[in-house]
Design brief:
This protein is an alpha/beta fold. The protein has 14 helices and 15 strands. The strands form two sheets. It has a nine-stranded mixed sheet with strand order 14-13-12-11-7-10-9-8-15. Strands 3-2-1-4-5-6 form a six-stranded parallel sheet, with helices on both faces. Strand 4, helix 4 and strand 5 form a beta-alpha-beta unit. Helix 1 packs across helix 12 and helix 4 packs parallel to helix 5.
Length: 473
Amino acid sequence: MEKNSINRRTFLKSSALVGAAGMVGTGSALTSCCSGNSGSSLANKPLKEPGSYYVPELPDMAKDGKELKAGVIGCGGRGSGAAFNFLNAAKGVTIVALADTFKDRVDDLAGKLKADKNIDIPENMRFTGLDAYKSVIDSGVDVILVATPPLFRPIHFQYAVEKGKHCFLEKPICVDPAGYRLIVATAKQAAAKSLCVVTGTQRHHNRDYVESYKQIMNGAIGEITGGTVWWNGGMLWFRDRQPGWSDGEWMIRDWVNWICLSGDHIVEQHVHNLDVWTWFTGLKPVSATGFGSRQRRVTGDQFDNFSVDFEMENGIHLHSMCRQIHGTPSNVSEFIQGTKGSWNSNGHIIKDLKGDEIWKYDYEAQNAQFKQSDPYTLEHVNWINHIRSGKPIEQASETAVANMYAIMGRESAYTGKKITWQEMTASPLDLYPKDLDLVKKMDVQGFGSGKEYKLPDYIHIAGQPSPGSAQTR
């Protein structure tokens, strides 16, 4: 290990502050939608004046306009989903190029596009390998959909912006401080080029979340004093290692279970809930103090539960909890407390301090007004509308803040230490591998730039649980 490197157990102390400003989320004027008792907050003092913060327009379909040719980087489950979300979001859009590390993934998505949308992707527009992203970006496309394992997203975003492409980035958009800094720098370049960048934090395109946000900005719960966010669910998918797979191939096919590829599930999944807090409050944390463990995960090297306390720059606290263990109670939601009341995303309900309901999102009105309510599609509707209207949008820098929350919480849980925003954003921790040769050189020890990424003792090589299931890192 290099003398000045930082890993999960050691940190470089630094006063440097790198990254996003304390307040995030500004933009265009309000739009109308289904608001239930929307007048209930009118007598309150707004946290932000209407028109001073961004609210997306969310029609069923994007407006007609210039034909857009898209390239997809990452053809697995989420990449395939994003491809069809894009195609369903507007008329006059198509997909012309595909890239993935593995040919079977590219061919699988190409087959689905042919069968479901009658879109032919010729062999010379199907690219494979870890550098295939460059071929797609250079193939004459207008827009790029990035849905690779999160480790690779910063460099894919960087190259796409360098080439002047509008980008959709699936979340999370980074797994370490080095990636965070690259995302923030690239986002500034995208803004300077007037590009449109939308991220896969789809709650920003859920109409119930948007209306709840407007209510809170209108002062419905008063000044925000704290909150709790949860993603407690079952274990995600995993891939058993197959004969002939190198360590690197197994890890990429099983990417969601590996720290260097996914960032751990607090980064890969729980970032959604942390993003809601970031969006609604506009705050960044001063510090994170957390713990976690590994109880039942059967592949990979990451935890399956975290609990983190975040202290904000204004002194209030956020409790973050996430778990991926089958057979345990599920809760995927957000709760925010204010001086006059509280909001809960379960049902999107606002209550006063007595516990009486004063506002609730009107789903019946939404269903009567709109045909399309899938946020995975609506995020593409919004993205395409910005592109066709010539109105730049840049969501990467805000999503990077939520990512950094998650990275801080992960590192605190790994080390048992209190981690500050300053030291984490300035940290040299870089999980990107030095060598990407899948066949000969890309073994487990090669990941993370040689920073101790090896198979833990409690992982059985065939992907089966080993004795002693309650091991922790």
